[in-house]
C-alpha cells in the first residue's frame, strides 16, 4: 500500500505533533478520496491531541479536490473542489471522506474559507436551529470571537435576531462590530451581558460557571444551547446538562445521516457574501505545533487554517 504524509502524534517532539509518513487511506464504497489543500483547527481536537497516544491522527475539517470518487456512485466526481469532515485523520495529504459529509465548493469560495465551515459553521447553524424562529428576537453568544461564536453571531444576524456578543478581551470586540453585531460586551464577568437581555436564545461556548450564570438571563420560555466548554475543558457532558436550573440543550456531535446539504447552505452563503469565515491565521501545516499552542493559549480569534503541501 502506498504511503502519504499526515500529521501524527509523537510525544517526543515539541507540541506532540509532526508531519510523518503513514499508510494511505483505503476508502469504503461510500467514501471519496480527497486530495487535501487546506485544513482548519478546532479547540476540541487540539485538546485531544495533547493526551492522545503516539501515532494517532487528528483532524476533522478539510477542503481539497476529489481524486477518486466513491465506488457506489454517490457524491461528487473526480476533479470536483470539495470540503467536508471526518471523525479523525483529516490532517493529511489524502483522506477518505464519507460522501454524506462532503459538499462542493462554489467557484468564488477559497479552499481556506471552505475548510473553516464544517465543524464551526455546522455547530453554529445547528445550535441556532434549536433556538427556533429568530426574527427580532434577542440572542446572546458567549465566546463570540471564537470560530463557533463568530459564525453564530453572523447566522443569527442573518436570521433577523438582535445579537449580543460576549468576549473576554477588548481587542476582540472590533471583529464583532465589523460583522454587525448589535451589542458587544467585553470582560471576564458575564454579568455585564444582562443589561441587553432578557434573551430569547443563548448560545454558550464556554461552559462552567459562565453557562450557569448566563442561563439566568433568559426570557421566560427561552432556550439556552451549550455547544462546548472552552473555559473548563474537564467539564463532562453530564455536568453541562445538570449545571443550569431547569435544564440546558447541549449540542453534542453531528447527525449520523450526514450533513452535505447543510454544508452546501453554508458555502452558498459565503459565495453570496452573506457569511464571512473568520480566518485569523493562515500558515503551512509544517507549523502545526506552533499553531496548536497558540490555539490552546486562546491567542487566536476565529479560525486558524493550514495549507497542506
From TrEMBL:
Any one Pfam family match given in the protein's UniProt record, by short name: ADH_zinc_N
Keywords assigned by UniProt, alphabetized: NADP
Keyword NADP attached: yes
Segments forming domain Enoyl reductase (ER): 15-306
SUPFAM superfamilies associated with the record: GroES-like (SSF50129), NAD(P)-binding Rossmann-fold domains (SSF51735)
PANTHER family xref list: QUINONE OXIDOREDUCTASE
Protein name as annotated: Zinc-binding dehydrogenase
Origin organism lineage: Bacteria, Bacillati, Bacillota, Bacilli, Bacillales
Amino acid at each position: 500500500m502506498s504511503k502519504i504524509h499526515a500529521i501524527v502524534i509523537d510525544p517526543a517532539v515539541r507540541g506532540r505533533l509532526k508531519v510523518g509518513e503513514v499508510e494511505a487511506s483505503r476508502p469504503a464504497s461510500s467514501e471519496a478520496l480527497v486530495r487535501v489543500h487546506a485544513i482548519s483547527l478546532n479547540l476540541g481536537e487540539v485538546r485531544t491531541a495533547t493526551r492522545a497516544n503516539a501515532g494517532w491522527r487528528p483532524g476533522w475539517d478539510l477542503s481539497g479536490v476529489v481524486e477518486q470518487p466513491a465506488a457506489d456512485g454517490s457524491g461528487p466526481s473526480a476533479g470536483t473542489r470539495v470540503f467536508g469532515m471526518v471523525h479523525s485523520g483529516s490532517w493529511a495529504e489524502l483522506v477518505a471522506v464519507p460522501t454524506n459529509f462532503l459538499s462542493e465548493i462554489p467557484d468564488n469560495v477559497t479552499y481556506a474559507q471552505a475548510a473553516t465551515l464544517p465543524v464551526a459553521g455546522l455547530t453554529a447553524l445547528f445550535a441556532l436551529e434549536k433556538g427556533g424562529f429568530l426574527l427580532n428576537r434577542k440572542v446572546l453568544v458567549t465566546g463570540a470571537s471564537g470560530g463557533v461564536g463568530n459564525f453564530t453571531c453572523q447566522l443569527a444576524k442573518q436570521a433577523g435576531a438582535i445579537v449580543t456578543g460576549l468576549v473576554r478581551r477588548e481587542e476582540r470586540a472590533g471583529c464583532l462590530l465589523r460583522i454587525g453585531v448589535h451589542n458587544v460586551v467585553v470582560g471576564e464577568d458575564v454579568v455585564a451581558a444582562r443589561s441587553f437581555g432578557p434573551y430569547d436564545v443563548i448560545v454558550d461556548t464556554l461552559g462552567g460557571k459562565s453557562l450557569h450564570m448566563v442561563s439566568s438571563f433568559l426570557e421566560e420560555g427561552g432556550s439556552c444551547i451549550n455547544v462546548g466548554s472552552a473555559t473548563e475543558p474537564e467539564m463532562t457532558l453530564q455536568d453541562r446538562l445538570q449545571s443550569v436550573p431547569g435544564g440546558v440543550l447541549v449540542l453534542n456531535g453531528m447527525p449520523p445521516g450526514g450533513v452535505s446539504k447543510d454544508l452546501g447552505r453554508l458555502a452558498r452563503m459565503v459565495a453570496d457574501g452573506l457569511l464571512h469565515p473568520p480566518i485569523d491565521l493562515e500558515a503551512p501545516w509544517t507549523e502545526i505545533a506552533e499553531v496548536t499552542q497558540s490555539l490552546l493559549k486562546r491567542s487566536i480569534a476565529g479560525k486558524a487554517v493550514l495549507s497542506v503541501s
